[in-house]
Amino acid sequence: MNNNPYAWIEASLETIHRADWYRSVQTINSLPGATVLLSGQKVINFASNDYLGLAGDERLQTAAIKAIQQFGTGSTGSRLLSGHRELHRELEQAIASTKQTEDAVVFSSGYLANIGVITALIGKRDLILSDQYNHSSLKRGAVLSGAAVIEYPHNSTAVLAEKLSQQRQNHRRCLIMTDSVFSMDGDLCPLPELLDLAEEFSCMLLLDEAHATGVMGKTGAGCVEHFGCTGRELIQIGTLSKALGSLGGYVAASHTLIDFLRNRAPSWIYTTALSPADTAAALAAMKIVQQEPERRQRLWDNVNYLKQLIRDNLPNLKILPSESPILCFQLPDAATALTAGKHLKEVGIFAPAIRPPTVPTSRIRITMMATHELEHIEKLVNTLKGMQL
Ligand SMILES: *Cc1c(COP(=O)(O)O)cnc(C)c1O
């Protein structure tokens, strides 16, 4: 008998290798942007969540530096003890104003926001209905809550309605939860139908706008705005780390719900407040999102240009349905996706292979940025054409 209680880890890693599921980090040695230095090699960057190109923006840098000089690097405690600064409140008010909700609260990451909200609102006597393709943070939050969890097939409001009519009456509270832009596919949830079902069956609805904030909707408020659902009662979650170019997460909802979270969300109460630099950078980004709609327009022009080039040049490429700046090319297996990703990198294109267990089927995932130039997009399409995928 092998007595080493850690021996299983090496065996497990070997299995991961054999399945072509092994992952490791890659180093970027430059400012973030449409092109970056990846392990010293200049590449066109189709792998970033920095949709509006703000993570390297000088105005965000200046705001962060100023905040550090004024308030230091660490916030020194949780929000309820010594960590709260006026900057946090300004950021929360800017978020609530963009989302047109009564209030908002910022967390140290989007992941912590999801875990905090779900575990504060839902317990053992309750029911969670969760889209099969939801982000890991929603799924983990559901498990942590101790509630009964039912996953419904991706975007299937028919199955969701069926489960609700069968199960809703057996539980105290019910939470329906979904990504608004699905992060590994790029399609959108059917928000108006979900809101109607939530109303009909007396359920709360949690919408994760991580990839939608700053991107979707006329003013960049997200999919709620995109679908014309502004003002309807729901819980909006998002991140400060994607289009807003900083770090942190938020919840936007009614005054009562936010007040409750400040008293009951463990991942807000028992963790250190967002740093002054991250807070100030996100606040600067919120202002830019409002004041420079042309950035969002450039992002969508780029998305449409790529889609048009693909239609004209790559009729056989299997593209997953997308209504966002996330575009995925489906590939038969993990090994093919890895080879394709490697080849793209060799010619100077950074577009990662996404494989199980992150997603059910292997793919190359492209994210567009407002700051991509036409020639970046043309090089991508010409390279894919040469690869005969
Ligand atoms: C990225 C992401 C998160 C997590 O946000 P972080 O701020 O990076 O922790 C949550 N939900 C979705 C859908 C995401 O894509």
UniProtKB/TrEMBL annotation:
This is 8-amino-7-ketopelargonate synthase. The modification N6-(pyridoxal phosphate)lysine is found at residue 242. Homodimer. Residues 42-383 form the Aminotransferase class I/classII large domain. It comes from the Bacteria. Its cofactor is pyridoxal 5'-phosphate. Catalyzes the decarboxylative condensation of pimeloyl-[acyl-carrier protein] and L-alanine to produce 8-amino-7-oxononanoate (AON), [acyl-carrier protein], and carbon dioxide. CDD domains: KBL_like. Pathway: Cofactor biosynthesis; biotin biosynthesis. Its EC number is 2.3.1.47. The keyword Oxidoreductase does not apply. Keywords: Acyltransferase, Biotin biosynthesis, Pyridoxal phosphate, Transferase. It catalyses: 6-carboxyhexanoyl-[ACP] + L-alanine + H(+) = (8S)-8-amino-7-oxononanoate + holo-[ACP] + CO2. One of its GO terms (biological process) is biotin biosynthetic process. One of its GO terms (molecular function) is pyridoxal phosphate binding. InterPro entries: Aminotrans_II_pyridoxalP_BS, Aminotransferase_I/II_large, AON_synthase_class-II, AONS_Archaea/Proteobacteria, PyrdxlP-dep_Trfase, PyrdxlP-dep_Trfase_major, PyrdxlP-dep_Trfase_small. Belongs to the class-II pyridoxal-phosphate-dependent aminotransferase family. BioF subfamily.
